[in-house]
């Protein structure tokens, strides 16, 4: 099974226990109600695939021995059925649509047509504070990469971030403790830069 460590354990356990026998749309509705979240069906579906969860429900699959709905009907090739230039197909996502990226565990959001997607937490942070300063990145205080609430995001210098990742992990279950670690390493990084600058004078 694919690891799902980026998610809250309670949420993962709940999905594992409740996803059998229901559609992803129904699962999404119950999940959002249970945890007071606003995940889209696409995000929940991608999450389940990544974790190896199978509901056993496939409403669109033809049962063995069944007859296709279009059996005996003529195949249409009229050009009117093709998309006109400048118009996307029914699968084209609107700006603002979200999906879960299984490669790195982040939620991404469509910001521009036709195919511009960005990490949601970056978009949320920039909406509140402007462009991320050069050499900085955004961290999640609770380490949940799907929790893009602005109160859960902090901007940190990549140098301090590297120290945190390798020497002083901010990976506790307490966001306040993680925030304290991040602030400490930010201060240490700033002091080192000042000392380095003074020694070069």
Automatic annotation (TrEMBL):
Top-level lineage group: Bacteria
Annotated InterPro entries: His-Me_finger_sf, HNH_nuc
Protein's name in the database: Bacteriophage phi 1.45 protein-like protein
SUPFAM superfamilies on file: His-Me finger endonucleases
All residue ranges annotated as the HNH nuclease domain in the record: 119-162
Pfam families: HNH_3
């Amino acid at each position: 099974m694919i690891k799902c460590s980026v998610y809250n354990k309670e949420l993962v356990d709940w999905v594992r226990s409740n996803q059998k026998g229901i559609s992803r749309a129904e699962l999404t509705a119950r999940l959002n109600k249970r945890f007071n979240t606003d995940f889209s069906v696409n995000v929940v579906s991608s999450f389940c695939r990544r974790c190896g969860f199978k509901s056993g429900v496939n409403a669109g699959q033809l049962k063995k021995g069944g007859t296709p709905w279009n059996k005996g009907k003529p195949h249409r090739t009229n050009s009117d059925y093709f998309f006109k230039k400048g118009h996307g197909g029914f699968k084209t996502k609107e700006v603002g649509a979200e999906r879960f990226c299984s490669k790195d565990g982040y939620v991404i959001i469509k910001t521009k047509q036709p195919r511009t997607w960005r990490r949601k937490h970056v978009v949320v942070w920039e909406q509140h504070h402007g462009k991320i300063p050069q050499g900085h990145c955004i961290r999640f205080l609770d380490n949940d990469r799907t929790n893009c609430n602005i109160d859960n995001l902090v901007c940190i210098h990549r140098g301090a971030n590297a120290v945190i990742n390798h020497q002083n992990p901010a990976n506790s279950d307490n966001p306040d403790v993680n925030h304290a670690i991040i602030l400490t390493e930010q201060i240490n990084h700033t002091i080192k830069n000042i000392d380095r600058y003074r020694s070069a004078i």
